[in-house]
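Can't paste images in this forum, so I'm doing it all in text. The chain is below; anyone willing to post the predicted structure tokens underneath?
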Amino acid sequence: MRALRKMYLASLLAVAGVSAHGADLYLEGHRLVVSGMLDGSVVGEFVDLVRRGNVQTVVFEDSMGGSAEVARLYANAIRETGVKTEVVGQCHAACAYAFLAGKTHRFGPGPQVNALLVPVGTRPQASDLASRWRGDEASKTLAEFIGPADAGQDLVSAADAAPKEKWRPDHGVLFVTKPSLFGRIYNTYYCDGTQGRDFTRCELLPDADPRKLGVIVD
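Text version of the structure:
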């Protein structure tokens, strides 16, 4: 069983370094796909596209993080317009913050492993997991990792500001799904950061299906 678990998480490593570049945007009908780091390079274009009203779903594809301040700009635009969010592949830290702002949030279909790494301060208890990802609770949970914005700060100055993120690399709760012969498998892990990108060393959390916790809808 442990060997199978290691094979399962090891599949994350193959894509762990694919998104070191800045964010890219492209439209697929009513879906706006965001790939790469949320570094502020296209945040103005992103906000403009979402506010036009044609986008129904924002898809985050293989984003390993980014700036906390920029993540808030993405999240604010998503929350303001009421669009849905989706993860395809990896979505870590800054990406997770923006993802959880969606009206509904889900993992994308397909043969890939989908993983969401949400920053947390300490190892969550079962009672924490059961409530902290629903509605406004998700914003409250993540707010402690981002410094307050300056009043009247515009998109350009916010994107260029010094990052204020307080999260630690590769530290948080990792929600994972992958396909199998019997349907998709869902699991949740706690990563204390000491494992680096070796997610096989993260602790499996019992009875923590991300669907039941409200992190995603299937």
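The longest strand covers residues 171-180. Strands lie at 24-28, 31-35, 57-63, 84-92, 105-107, 114-118, 171-180, 183-192, 203-204.
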